[in-house]
């Protein structure tokens, strides 16, 4: 089996490191201003604590996939993929906002990554370890992990990078 080296993958996350969600409970009044339905809504702040990193693998001619589980941090390999060691890391995000508020976290369905010499790989199946209907704690914080599935074609060896937009909105 001919193997090609796929070096460490570090995904840069979120739009800017700090993002503010728009008020989802606001309506335009007759004068054209926003009339908030909540008295004191604190803007949301999203901080990326740890970048998603699938670590180092070798890719055979048939390609394969690497999955990272956000709850356990376990890495699973499938297809013509060989583990070359290293330390895979799930992404960690901290959200700050109004204490006790319910929020919605949105991750994209797919993210295309760019590698050396115009090659590409794709991350799919992004998932978090959040419970349904997540809420900010009494301190206004919510921290969660996320992982996903990196799909690599056999001819696409290299070091891949990209951005995963993490969007958080008040419910």
Name some characteristics of this structure.
disordered N terminus, 47% strand, 8-stranded antiparallel sheet, mainly beta
H-E string: EEEEEEEEEEEEEE
The tally of helices reads 0
Q: What does the radius of gyration come to?
A: 19 Å
Global morphology: elongated
The major β-sheet equals: 8 strands, antiparallel
Structural class: mainly beta
**Distance N to C terminus:** 51 Å
Mean pLDDT: 81
Using DSSP, what is the number of strands? 14
* Unreliable parts: 1-40
* Strand-residue proportion: over 45%
Question: Percent range for helical residues?
Answer: under 10%
Task: Walk me through the structure.
The chain is mostly beta strands. It is built from no helices and 14 strands. The strands form four sheets. Strands 1, 5, 6, 7, 8, 10, 11 and 12 form an eight-stranded antiparallel sheet that branches. Strands 2-13 form a two-stranded parallel sheet. Strand 3 and strand 4 form a beta hairpin. It is elongated, with a radius of gyration of 19 Å.
């Amino acid at each position: 089996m001919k193997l090609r080296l796929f070096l460490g993958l570090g995904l840069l996350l979120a739009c800017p490191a700090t993002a503010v969600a728009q008020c989802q409970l606001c309506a335009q009044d007759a004068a054209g201003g926003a009339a908030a339905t909540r008295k004191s809504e604190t803007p949301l702040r999203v901080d990326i604590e740890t970048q998603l990193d699938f670590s180092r693998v070798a890719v055979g001619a048939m390609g394969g996939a690497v999955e990272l589980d956000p709850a356990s941090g376990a890495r699973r390999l499938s297809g013509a993929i060989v583990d070359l060691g290293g330390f895979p890391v799930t992404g960690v995000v901290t959200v700050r906002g109004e204490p006790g508020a319910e929020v919605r976290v949105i991750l994209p369905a797919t993210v295309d990554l760019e590698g050396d010499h115009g090659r590409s790989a794709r991350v799919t199946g992004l998932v978090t370890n959040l419970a349904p209907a997540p809420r900010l704690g009494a301190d206004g914080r919510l921290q969660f992990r996320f992982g996903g599935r990196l799909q690599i074609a056999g001819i696409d060896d290299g070091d891949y990078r990209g951005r995963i937009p993490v969007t958080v909105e008040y419910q």
